[in-house]
Design brief:
heterodimer, A: 315 residues, mainly beta, 12-stranded antiparallel barrel, two-stranded antiparallel sheet, 1 helix, 19 strands, B: 517 residues, mainly alpha, 19 helices, globular
């Protein structure tokens, strides 16, 4: 094992933003890091995140809205990551989301959002000079857990699409410092809305909406040790298509929605009680199009343990 | 490593299965409409009662060139040349336009209403700019096609098309010119063949009337509208349905008849419907003086009320005095127990919103960026009418009946809204959160209820075999405003009553216009 330290460190479960569209970026994704948990280990626990914005972009026009004030989204989710093998992990996440606008009359929404499942596979790991390069392939999918309303942006809790994602990830680690880069393609299914017609750049006489697919680029670097992880993260989300919100129009699920965030994450792993982990972090949208300029904070408590008692000496 | 393959392979297979089964192609309902093949030609339609036209010969249409003339033969050769080199784009034009001229122009209008149905963004000082027909391209572009503006637009375009077709039917009968494919066996009919005389072209009449009307109503869209007209003209020729001369004669007639309607539109009072700051203030002051709580805008910054003088616009189906006669009795006093009770009911719908109610609210919301409630009812009507195989003139007549009822229902509703200037539920109780945007005008009575009941009343008359389908829909549309927590129950119930009363004027007109005898 070239990276015993990482294996010992366990899964690093941190909420990352993903396509929850305009309302807020609170859906969790845990597939963008370069950490695996060992075979027969389970890491699980609750996570909370809070997103808030009062500036948003209609196309490239940045504005506030006195009829919305601050739009916030909060999420509580339960996550689990299981080591099928040292090189193959399965992650699941079940989020509950609620939204609110501080001004105006629109009613906030709440409900179970989208369950996600990721399969994370590390086929290659090799030494280069004094560092280690590892390659990952991550495939996943998500499905809505409830019949929530996607056509009520910016207060919808999600886009209500079924997604399939594929990510390629490269990690380089030298002593305790690492750099990770990844690119993900997100395929989004059509969605069904309650209206049977809608206007994008023309009228559509259907209740089906073609959501643009998306690319996500993620880069992170920082410090990893047995007890600490500290990292800086940059991420870009770009929809492959979609249309701009017109001035003073309402947002729509098939809008073009692009944004770039900068953020930082921290994780502390206790030596006693062994397996207890705390995470915290946040990010901020530095540029965007048809999205809110949100600030996200999140934190989680996780417990890592072996589900097979007799296997004591992992190393 | 090898073992992992056993996990990966099924997963990859699932992913590919999901991807390949998820065809994102969407077939929209209006793209599935079949070519129009009228069951009845309505050859006597020149006797039908027009709206503004004083006689079928008010505008003259010159006799067509003789079939044997070089001019007509040249026109036929033009068609044959098109048919020899027909492209896929041109086939798509045929597929689109052959569903019907009145239908497609109504759709185009709905598209423009949706495009322009956006409230202006505020100025830096918290006031709002107003669109200007004199300077239509400046922000905010003219028009802001809100529900009253939309209702009026649909009415004028539909009524102009109807009158123009009555005149056209007269000349069709007079000149009795068969379609190109009947005069020359080498001209193919790429649309269903018809025995209707083809001079002047009914498609061109519909198009000319629509274009002339829409230039006034949507002046920033002239290039778009004229392109649609050019497409339709090309379609008629390629399809072998009309010669160029038949089109041109029809287009000219359509434009002339529409001139009667543009002249009416310029003086119907809609241009002044926005009111003045002094008038807006007087509404509030006068209502407060009666002891009632006056409406205030719930937008931030506060937006002037939407078209407060639209109630003074001259209606189509009855004289202005009837608007006053149709005005409903006052709503429950804002200090009454009944009012408190109704406010509590709205709060209850807000707090206990079910997903089912939310879906109903969304379905009927028809707010900013949509074709507005009258456009929704036009869409409902159009999807019924395509099943009926109406002639173009019956299409136009039925759409005109619906849309005149919509406009007049809008006038009657707006009259009540600004006469009573009644506050919205959320103004009464700030705890009431809404499931859709609150429209920026007074509560009593509900516009959706008026529009829906008026349209449903006309549709039920036109299509009696549909039973209570349309009145059920209108009932649901009205209640959607209560479920959405933006209207009191009384607003909806009384709105349905006045809307039905307006719809009955259209039904009375329909019974007497000669089309159903």
């Amino acid at each position: 094992m070239i990276k015993p330290l990482l294996v010992q460190t366990g899964k690093y479960l941190i909420a990352l933003s993903i396509l929850v569209a305009f309302s807020g970026r609170v859906s969790a994704q845990t597939d963008a890091d370069a950490i695996m948990i060992p075979k027969n280990y389970l890491c699980t626990g609750p996570m909370y995140s809070h997103s808030d914005w009062n500036h948003y972009w209609e196309g490239d026009f940045k504005r506030t809205n006195g009829n919305l004030g601050h739009v916030s989204s909060q999420m509580f989710s339960l996550m689990a990551d299981y080591g099928v093998s040292d090189k193959f992990n399965v992650l699941v996440n079940f989020p509950y989301v609620w939204t609110n606008a501080s001004a105006g009359t629109l009613k906030g929404q709440k409900g179970l959002q989208d369950a996600s499942l990721f399969l994370k596979y590390m086929p290659f790991e090799f030494q280069v000079g004094k560092g280690v390069i590892s390659l990952y392939g991550i495939a996943g999918g998500s499905i809505p857990l409830s019949n929530y309303e996607p056509d009520f942006l910016p207060l919808s809790i999600g886009a209500h699409s079924r997604n399939v994602m594929g990510r390629f990830l490269v990690d380089y680690q030298r002593s305790n410092f690492f750099t990770t880069a990844s690119a993900e393609y997100v395929y989004r299914s059509n969605i069904t809305i309650d209206r049977n017609s809608y206007y994008t750049t023309e009228m559509h006489y259907t209740n089906q909406v073609d959501l643009p697919n998306a690319m996500v680029y993620n880069g992170r670097m920082g410090y990893r040790s047995e007890s600490w992880i500290a990292e800086a993260v940059a991420e870009n989300n770009t929809t492959l298509g979609g249309f701009d919100i017109r001035k003073n129009d309402m947002p729509f699920p098939s809008n073009k929605m692009n944004w770039t965030t900068l953020g930082a994450n921290f994780k502390y792993t206790f030596s006693r009680p062994s397996g207890l982990e705390l995470t915290a972090g946040g990010d901020y949208v530095i540029s965007g199009r048809n999205v809110g300029q949100s600030t996200v904070f999140h934190g989680g408590v996780y417990y890592l343990f072996s589900v097979v008692k007799q296997k004591k000496d992992k190393k | 490593m090898k073992k992992n393959i056993y996990y990966i392979l099924p997963v990859l297979a699932m992913v590919f299965a999901t991807l390949s089964s998820c065809n994102k192609t969407i077939v929209e309902r209006n793209n599935a409409f079949q070519p129009l093949s009228p069951a009845k030609l309505d050859l006597n339609a020149e006797t039908w009662k027009p709206v503004l036209l004083t006689s079928v010969t008010q505008f003259s249409v010159a006799a067509p060139d003789a079939v044997s003339s070089p001019a007509y033969q040249a026109d036929l050769n033009e068609i044959k040349a098109y048919q020899r080199g027909i492209t896929d784009d041109q086939k798509a034009l045929i597929s689109y336009w052959s569903a019907g001229a009145v239908l497609r122009w109504n759709e185009i209008l709905r598209d423009l209403v949706a495009k322009h149905n956006l409230p202006p963004y505020q100025n830096d000082d918290g006031t709002y700019p107003a669109p200007s027909s004199a300077n239509p391209f400046a922000y905010p572009q003219f028009p802001f096609s809100n529900p009253p503006y939309a209702a009026r637009s649909y009415a004028y375009v539909s009524a102009a098309q109807y009158d123009a077709l009555i005149a056209a039917w007269h000349y069709k009968a007079l000149y009795n010119r068969p379609a190109p494919y009947k005069n020359d066996a080498t001209v193919k009919a790429l649309v269903p063949k018809s025995d209707l005389p083809s001079y002047p072209s009914e498609d061109a009449v519909v198009s000319g009337a629509a274009v002339e009307m829409m230039k006034l109503l949507f002046p920033t869209e002239i290039a778009y509208i004229e392109q649609k007209e050019a497409d339709q003209k090309l379609y008629r020729m390629i399809a072998g349905a009309n010669t160029r001369a038949e089109w041109d004669a029809g287009e000219a007639l359509g434009k002339q008849v529409a001139g009667l309607f543009t002249a009416r539109a310029r003086t119907d009072g809609a241009g002044a419907a926005i009111g003045t700051p002094a008038y807006w203030q007087s509404l509030e002051t006068n209502t407060a003086a009666t002891g009632q709580t006056p409406w205030i805008s719930l937008e931030y910054p506060k937006r002037p009320p939407m078209l407060p003088l639209f109630g003074k616009v001259v209606p189509f189906l009855f004289p202005p005095a009837t608007v006053i006669a149709l005005r409903p009795p006052p709503p429950p006093s804002t200090s009454s127990d009944q009012f408190k009770k109704e406010t509590a009911e709205v709060l209850s719908y807000s707090k206990n919103a079910t997903r089912e109610n939310q879906a109903i609210v969304q379905f009927w919301a028809d707010g900013a960026g949509t074709y507005a409630p009258p456009g929704h009812w036009d869409a409902i009507a159009a999807e019924e009418f395509v099943k009926e195989n109406y002639s173009e003139i019956r299409w136009a007549r039925n759409m005109a009946l619906i849309n005149m009822a919509e406009m007049d229902a809008g006038i009657v509703c707006w009259d009540a809204k600004y006469f009573y200037f009644n506050p919205r539920p959320t103004q009464t109780d700030g705890a009431i959160k809404t499931l859709t945007g609150i429209p920026n005008f007074p509560s009593y009575t509900s516009g959706h209820s008026n529009f829906s009941a008026a349209a449903a009343t006309v549709l039920t008359y036109l299509l009696p075999d549909r039973g209570t389908k349309f009145t059920d829909m209108a009932q649901q549309a009205a209640m959607s405003r209560l479920y959405g927590a933006i209207h009191y129950r009384t607003d909806c119930e009384v709105g349905l009553t006045t809307g039905k009363a307006v719809g009955n004027y259209a039904v009375a007109r329909a019974k007497a216009d000669g089309a159903d005898q």
